[in-house]
Structure formats: structure tokens, C-alpha cells
Amino acid sequence: MTPGHASEHSPELPPAPPPLSTQPEQPQMNEGARLIGVFFSPGKTFADIARKPRWWIPVIISAILATVYLNAFTQRVGWESVIRPAIERLPNAQSMTTQQREQAIQTAAGFYKYVGYGSVLIALFYVFIVAVILMFLFDTMMSAGIGLKRMMGIVAYGFLPLAIQTVLSMVVLFLKDPEEFNLQNPLMFNVGAYMSPDSPAALRAVGSSIDLFSLWIIVLLAIGVSSAARKISFGKALAGIALPWALYVCLKTAAAAAGMQVGG
């Protein structure tokens, strides 16, 4: 048998397998998609934030809105409406003369009208503090391994409902009579808004904490943490975030009760 004849009847070698294709990475969301996705597809959005964490865009947007809102409040209502009742509730208010009381009110009002210009630093401070607290709970106590940068991204985007709250408060500010506007509770989205002003201060503190925006933020943060740390389920993240929030509400209630006792 000739070599050529043998080659004609020899079995053909199977084709070489194609090279293993690596799975393509999911396309990264731009900032606009993230800002919208937090409200409409938070799971997908926080997964993208965990892959490529950024936090400064929501902080800047929230700070700009807060600056505009507080400056509008200063022009339309004035800080005297907030400071006057606060000073009159002080234990030593009765011992102050009318001139001393008015001077204290004007001094405080003159200071607070510039608070809005520090909104960027205030927003950044809150994002950093909350991120550190959540890192202690999840990274230190549960070994989630999220890290500061990713946690700050989760917190910054998780706090975006406050931007919605600020916009709605600004609308109410311009629609409502300035004398009836309440800076501490401009919207009717919490239980405290429906309580009588004569209700105990501690009860009103609890009621104001049961707020739609606060609960919304807690849920978003839980989605963010569970997206960044696969070993942490949504339920576990929700419980971990609700714990410091409940502690904050307890401290706020205790402070309100103590203030009422001192004032009374």
C-alpha cells in the first residue's frame, strides 16, 4: 500500500476545539444611568457601583440641592422662625432680658444663613461617618470585605432619596405661606407630621423617625451591601442597617424626653 493510498483512508483528525472565550464584562453604567437606576433598578445599579465605586457625583448633586434649598428658605422664611422657639425653650431663657434674647436670636440667625454654603462638606461628612459605621458592622464584625471606597459609594447613592426630599420640600416652600412652613418637618411623609403639637416630645421624636425617606434609604443601603458582599444576604444586611438606625431613634427620643423634662 502506497503512502498516498494510506493517507486517503486514514481517519480525519477532529478539528481543534475553539479557544475558550472569556465571558465579556458587563458594560459599565455611566453616572446618569446610575442616578436613575438607584430608583428603578437598584440591584443592578449597586452591583455596578460595587465593581467600580464612585461617590462624589451624588454627594455634589445633594449638596447643590441643599444649598439652593437653604438659601431659598433664608430669603423666603428666615432662620428666626426656627431659632426663636428653640431659644425660648432653653432653661435660662426666662432669666434673659428681651434685648438679650433678641440679640441671641439675631446672632444665631446670622450664622445659620451661611450653613447652606457648607453643604458639600456636611454631605461628605455624613457619607463618611455612615460608611465607617457600616464598615464596622459588616467588614469588622461579619468579614464582608467591602472596603471604605465601595462602602462610601453605596452610602452616597443610597442617600439619594434625600435629594428627592429636598426638591419636594422646595416646592412646598414656595407654595405654602412662609409663616406656616416648618423646616424640621416640611413634608407629610412621616407619622410625626400627623401628631398634635401638644403630644409628648419623645412621642413626636419617634413619629418623625418613622419616615418614608428614612425607610427607603435603609432598604437601598441593604441592597447595596448585599450586592457588594455576596456572603451577606439582603435580609442580613437589612437587619444590620436597621440596628444602628433603631439606636439613633432611641437616642433621639431620649434627648427629646430629657429636653422636655429640663424645659418643664
Short descriptors:
264 residues, 2 domains, globular, mainly alpha
Largest sheet: none
Label the overall shape. Answer: globular
Mean of pLDDT = 86
H/E element string? HHHHHHHHHHHH
Gyration radius, rounded: 28 Å
Distance between the termini: 116 Å
Helix content: 55-70%
Number of helical elements: 12
The portion of residues forming beta strands comes to: under 5%
Total number of strands: 0
Topology diagram in text:
Elements: H1 3-9, H2 31-40, H3 42-51, H4 56-76, H5 80-88, H6 98-112, H7 119-140, H8 148-158, H9 161-175, H10 201-209, H11 212-228, H12 234-263
Helix pairs in contact: 2-3, 3-8, 3-11, 4-7, 4-9, 5-6, 7-8, 7-12, 8-11, 10-12, 11-12
Q: How would you describe the overall organization of this protein?
A:
The structure is a single chain. This protein is mostly helical. It has two domains: 30-78 and 113-263, no CATH class; 81-112, no CATH class. The chain is 67% helix and 0% strand. The protein is built from twelve helices and no strands.
